[in-house]
Amino acid sequence: MSAIILEEDIVHYEVLGRGRPITFLHGWVGSWRYWIPSMQAASVSYRAYAIDMWGFGDSAKNTSRYLLSQQLNLLKSFLNKLGIGKVAIVGHGLGAIVALLFAEENPQYVDRVMAVGVPLDLTQINPRMFQSSPEDLANWLLGSTPDSEAARIEAPKADQDAIYHSLRHLDKANIKELPLRLSIPCLLVHGQNDPAIGIGENNRTANLPLHFHFIPFESAGHFPMLDTPNKFNRLMTDFMALSSGESPRKLALKEEWKRRVR
């Protein structure tokens, strides 16, 4: 277990591999732990970091730190503390929102973002997300694979206030306009069977800027990285292999595997 002190509180993280840095940010359910299969896949060519954000996993529980702005500060302080330069970010749910907002505020830090299950409209969020305990959310959203069980065990570590406050303040972030405010390559991934975050209107994803690309996972729910790990990890590594600044629209899924479209 690795940890650093930021703002006089503990932030837990884990790291694997060597190479260019990738940072994994978890969602509203679980902790860094469910990223292990994706970290292992990335660590073949990259140095993969996964952080427990404020209120989750083994990081400090402090209600004053649960606003989105505080999670953004955590990420910036973490990168500075470890001397990490320009980084690719893979974020899920809450982590996807943090990644996109961080890229907007700190473009000098971010090379690209893979945003999984990100709500680009508040109406996409199931009201149950605001009302349920971390344990209930995990039982609702996680499957029955071994990796899902590891995430289920970690979920109750979260402070329910960390979930609630981040959701309650999404309206202040104007997330609907985020794609128009960003200039870095962004790959949006969404499980079509996700009961927590709706997939949104087709015209909204069809009209994304050219440096954005949307790929649905037909057989996945809220955790495509756990429901279909081989597909997810292949897509992730293909995205990371693109040249800096290159549009992810060259990426596609095809049946049981992914390929670059040439």
Count of discrete alpha- or pi-helical segments spanning 4 or more residues? 11
Ranges where pLDDT stays below 50 over 5 or more residues in a row are 256-262
Q: Could you tell me the strand content as a percent range?
A: 15-25%
Can you give the mean pLDDT?
92
Which helices and strands, and how do they pair?
Blueprint: E1 2-6, E2 9-16, E3 20-25, H1 36-42, E4 46-51, H2 68-81, E5 87-92, H3 94-105, E6 110-116, H4 128-131, H5 134-141, H6 146-154, H7 160-168, H8 178-181, E7 186-191, H9 202-206, E8 212-217, H10 224-227, H11 229-241, E9 251-254, E10 257-260
Parallel strand pairs: 3-4, 3-5, 5-6, 6-7, 7-8
Antiparallel strand pairs: 1-2, 2-4, 9-10
Helix pairs in contact: 1-11, 2-3
Characterise the protein shown here.
With 262 residues, the protein is an alpha/beta fold. It has a single domain, classed as Alpha/Beta hydrolase fold, catalytic domain (Rossmann fold, 3-Layer(aba) Sandwich), CATH 3.40.50. Helices cover 34% and strands 22% of the residues. It has helices at 36-42, 68-81, 94-105, 128-131, 134-141, 146-154, 160-168, 178-181, 202-206, 224-227, 229-241, and strands at residues 2-6, 9-16, 20-25, 46-51, 87-92, 110-116, 186-191, 212-217, 251-254, 257-260. The strands form 2 sheets. It has an 8-stranded mixed beta sheet with strand order 1-2-4-3-5-6-7-8, with helices on both faces. The chain has a two-stranded antiparallel sheet with strand order 9-10. A hairpin with a 2-residue loop joins β9 and β10. The longest helix has 14 residues, at 68-81. It starts with a strand and ends with a strand. Residues 256-262 have low confidence and may be disordered.
